[in-house]
Amino acid sequence: MAQNQMKKPNILITGTPGVGKTTTSSLLADATQLRHINIGELVKQNNLYDGWDENFHCHVINEDLVCDQLEDMMEEGGNIVDYHGCDFFPKRWFDRVVVLQTNNSVLYDRLSNRGYMGTKLSNNIECEIFQVLLEEAKTSYPEEIVIALQSDSVDDISRNVGMLTDWLRNWQPAS
Ligand code: DAT
């Protein structure tokens, strides 16, 4: 295949709400010209949910509809998928799975600033303490494609975006 026809990789950026997935994905998309797909926005724009969860104050997404909606774009390659879950996407879609992690007290402040409180706030902090997303990523994808990156500070964001940009530039599809 000619160089310019090479399929670009797909990256999944995951982690607890508030760790910096959207900020990191958006900067990475600017740096690489890859397509940033924010699953929360995609669900809202295309009504890909089954209802509203009163306990967690969030939409219950329909995972099958989300995967159907994404299939063609993922097949094409060159996507940065941003979501706080990762176990329902087909394993074959991703070349890299990045789990962002944040210090608990930093995350507490970010989520409080976002208006989270009560159970929603404490559940998300527990999710981060118990590394739920890292475990989910490790059980859902091959170990060698999963990386955990710290996302406490603005410097961390710059370093993570720089590192992922380098990885994308050097990426070669498996023959
Ligand atoms: P997510 O998409 O994981 O929910 P976000 O990108 O929306 O997170 O970020 C939540 C808030 O925290 C937003 O105001 C930006 C800020 N933030 C995220 N990562 C950060 C970091 N590493 N350093 C400083 N601020 C950060």
TrEMBL record:
Keywords: ATP-binding, Cytoplasm, Kinase, Nucleotide-binding, Nucleus, Ribosome biogenesis, rRNA processing, Transferase. It catalyses: ATP + H2O = ADP + phosphate + H(+); AMP + ATP = 2 ADP. Its EC number is 2.7.4.3. It holds the Pfam family AAA_18. One of its GO terms (cellular component) is cytoplasm. It is an enzyme of class 2 (transferase). GO terms for biological process: ribosomal small subunit biogenesis; rRNA processing. Gene3D superfamilies: P-loop containing nucleotide triphosphate hydrolases. It is found in: Cytoplasm; Nucleus. InterPro entries: Adenyl_kinase_AK6, P-loop_NTPase. Residues 38-61 are annotated as: NMPbind. ATP binds at G18, G20, K21, T22, T23, R114. Residues 113-123 are annotated as: LID. It comes from the Eukaryota. GO terms for molecular function: AMP kinase activity; ATP binding; ATP hydrolysis activity. Interacts with small ribosomal subunit protein uS11. Not a structural component of 43S pre-ribosomes, but transiently interacts with them by binding to uS11. Belongs to the adenylate kinase family. AK6 subfamily. Broad-specificity nucleoside monophosphate (NMP) kinase that catalyzes the reversible transfer of the terminal phosphate group between nucleoside triphosphates and monophosphates. Has also ATPase activity. Involved in the late cytoplasmic maturation steps of the 40S ribosomal particles, specifically 18S rRNA maturation. While NMP activity is not required for ribosome maturation, ATPase activity is. Associates transiently with small ribosomal subunit protein uS11. ATP hydrolysis breaks the interaction with uS11. This is Adenylate kinase isoenzyme 6 homolog. It comes from Coptis chinensis.
